[in-house]
């Protein structure tokens, strides 16, 4: 009887601690809602990006190509947001205006957020925000 009680208490504690870990990670997504961040992409053909973000606007600067995109940001959940390009500083990139992408923050480790987004054609791109 005593052993069952110990096992029951252990299971309850395990469930509580597991729930706290998940909730703790989600609450950290808010750390990435405002500020200046660098994006690391595994695809080396893409230039390094620095983003400055407020609650509603994100500005992505690509120093290698001297391009700057301004996007409206709409947070769908604590860890998921939609970006819609509203302006770009190079006329050759005007086709990007109006394009939307949904970004998912998959996990957080320290000050890094591991994310992905999917293009309309199904291509998935993974990146890290630091």
TrEMBL record:
Keyword Signal: yes
Signal peptide from the UniProt entry: 1-24
Keywords: Signal
Species for this entry: Flavobacterium capsici
Record-given protein name: DUF4377 domain-containing protein
